[in-house]
Amino acid sequence: MLIVRDAAALAAAVSAWRDAGDRVAVVPTMGYLHEGHLALVARARELAQRVIATIFVNPTQFAPHEDLGRYPRDEAGDVAKLETAGCDLLFAPPVEVMYPPGFATRIAMGGPAEGLEGTHRPQMFAGVALVCSRIFGLTRADVAVFGEKDWQQVMVVRRVVEDLAIPVAIETVPTVRAVDGLALSSRNAYLDPEARVKAAAMYAALTQAAERLKAGATSAEACGEAEERLREAGFRQVDYVALRSAREFSELGRLDEPARVLGAAWLGQVRLIDNLPV
Ligand code: PAF
Predict the structure, then answer these.
(1) Which numbered atom of ligand 1 lies nearest the CA of 58?
(2) How far is the CA of 30 from the centre of ligand 1 (A)?
């Protein structure tokens, strides 16, 4: 696997592949890779002859009070995992390559960036839209693969790609879960053993909400019960449990089209998010 940290070396590798007629897939990540990320790489390998993974802890998507400085990092471990997964190239640029001196573009996101994560982390999707647009431009990938765990992020990336006519297809892979249902996430590293046990309640609460919705409950009923269940399980604050249309990401009063039930809540100082198809 090639490890590349500058834009020129990346462009040279990608040009050689494209000249040879190979399709290129990219898997954007912030590193500290787990089985969920490796499932994205596996899907990318099915979709293209060449697979790029990016590792970049993107400062523009973190608010000043958030965990940018302590976000878990393990590049050596990530390299070993990507090699085993059959990744062709790791692009792991420093900040000054992703955002060179003079970089001045900002993206203001409406539509699917509004509400839920957009309310609780107002800086997040502008930063995701910006970094993903730059990754798509630098890699010139034909297809990019994202995890369904961050469903709202996927909606935002699809919107940006369509609105800015960026020639990349967006593919998604279902969330990979631990045996107790907890969605794999790099931030699970923040959970102490006691919190790790409680964390499984997120999946249980969303699963129960999905069942209630399928049985005809309103979104207010099903989501309200799930929020209550999270509090009983020891979550100190529930940011939201919500039902959204899977296609438009609009709010739904009840289940009358393909949808996602999404939740975000705090276990101590750790914020967990998850969602399920329903
Ligand atoms: O999901 C992530 O890890 C990040 O938000 C992404 C898509 C790599 C952009 O920094």
Answers:
(1) 10
(2) 6
Domain edge (last residue) among 173, 204, 236: 173
The model's pTM is: 0.98
Neighbour order of strands in the sheet with 169-173: 2-4, 89-91, 50-55, 24-29, 143-147, 169-173
CATH code (residue 95): 3.40.50.620
Question: In terms of residue numbers, what domain contains 248?
Answer: 186-272
124 Cα nearest atom in ligand 1:
5
Residues 128 and 222 in one domain: no
Confidence label for 200 from pLDDT (cuts 50, 70 and 90):
very high
List the strands of the sheet with 259-267, edge to edge. Answer: 237-245, 259-267, 270-277
pLDDT, averaged across the chain: 98
Number of domains the chain contains: 2
Distance 129 CA to ligand 1 centre (A): 9
Q: Which of 34, 37, 65, 120 is catalytic?
A: 37
Task: Provide mean pLDDT across the span 184-209.
Answer: 97
